[in-house]
Amino acid sequence: MGGRKKASQQAAGRLSEADSAAVRLAAMDALARREHSRYELINKLCAKGADTALAEKVLEQLREENLQSDQRFVEDWVNNRYRRGQGPMKVRAELSQHQLEGGLVESQLSRSDLDWFEAARLAYQKKYGTQPIDDYNERAKRMRFLQGRGFYAEHIQYALSAPQSGEQW
């Protein structure tokens, strides 16, 4: 993707088929590992020496062929972070760095199959198990843990007040 030949072709305003094929191959290699946002792929391709215009052209072709999709990327990212015990605020902040459409992120975060209350409870239970809260400082520490994971106050209150596994409510 680099070299003297590429520089002279770009200076003349012509991009060869070989350059396009190399950029496409690099993009498909990245997509074979995991889903990527359009913004992320453009940055990766440009870091490898691809021209921005060529990278955008190749990514548009991949999008038309449904090989790259910001929708799939967001869905995969949200599901992955949800399973790892991350909260919606943290997921939203991470996705904001990918320059995605705002509605795309919000629609995925508000899906009905994602129970953020239960995710907060499970993250809390995994970290603290059935250890009782002895004092105010311990309670504050546990709340900060869940805040750092990106959960809202109502999720945190639920996790702290929910019965632990085996207990009755």
Give the gist of this structure.
The chain has helices at about 5-10, 15-35, 40-45, 50-65, 70-85, 90-95, 100-110, 115-130, 135-150, 155-160.
Walk me through the structure:
This protein has 169 residues and is mainly α. It has three domains: 4-64, Arc Repressor Mutant, subunit A, CATH 1.10.10; 70-109, Arc Repressor Mutant, subunit A (Orthogonal Bundle), CATH 1.10.10; 116-161, Arc Repressor Mutant, subunit A (Orthogonal Bundle). It contains ten helices and no strands. Helix 2 crosses helix 4, helix 5 (70-83) runs parallel beside helix 7 and helix 6 runs antiparallel to helix 7. The protein is elongated and about 70 Å long.
Which structural traits does this protein have?
169 residues, Arc Repressor Mutant, subunit A, 3 domains
Question: Would you spell out the secondary-structure blueprint of this structure?
Answer:
Elements: H1 4-12, H2 17-33, H3 38-47, H4 52-64, H5 70-83, H6 88-96, H7 102-109, H8 116-128, H9 136-148, H10 153-161
Runs with pLDDT <50, length 5+? 7-15
CATH class of the largest domain: Mainly Alpha
How many strand units? 0
N/C terminus separation: 62 Å
The CATH architecture designation of the largest domain is Orthogonal Bundle
- Taking Cα atoms only, what radius of gyration do you get, to the nearest Å? 22 Å
CATH topology heading of the largest domain: Arc Repressor Mutant, subunit A
Return the average pLDDT rounded to an integer. Answer: 88
Largest β sheet strand count, sense and barrel closure: none
Domain unit count: 3
The ordered H/E elements are: HHHHHHHHHH
Question: Percentage of helical residues?
Answer: 55-70%
Number of helices: 10
Strand content: under 5%
Name the structural class. Answer: mainly alpha
The general outline is elongated
